[in-house]
């Protein structure tokens, strides 16, 4: 057997191993939409919900409740879009959307996310909400890095970027909204666009 045949066989075996242990159908478009939802949500919060200069938002105020509801809507829309577009991508690749790899991916993503969510709620309940944006970015970044071993692509780099700007955000109080837009909005759009272009090439 020629050397080229050996290399071809090794490459095919490597691809099979990747397909059996990693989820490969994450949709780039879902990343772009998640970023757009985040920016639109942040704009609504900035213009209609945030207090004016010199004022503060009480934790039991109507505006705070609307702000939390808005965050929930943004997260829900992002998840629904990701599920729909990723399912379509998986069907196109003749893959199963729900198998052992998907369950491992979700478990590894949700452990840091749920931990972070509970920690943020405890902080808010104790009226310590000054670092909420940075904590959201840091725990989301940790979740992406933790889940990246079950995906093909550069999800871990998006996670590293979220952790870094989350730490910078913690060091610069008062700019949380803008770092939130950068992390959940612009970084998602950039990452989703790169993924989408790679999908088109393949």
Automatic annotation (TrEMBL):
The UniProt keywords, alphabetically, are:
Membrane, Transmembrane, Transmembrane helix
Q: Where are the transmembrane segments?
A: 23-50, 62-85, 105-122, 128-145, 157-173, 179-197
Ranges in a coiled coil: none
Q: Does the keyword Heme apply?
A: no
Cleaved signal peptide residues? none
Protein name as annotated:
DUF308 domain-containing protein
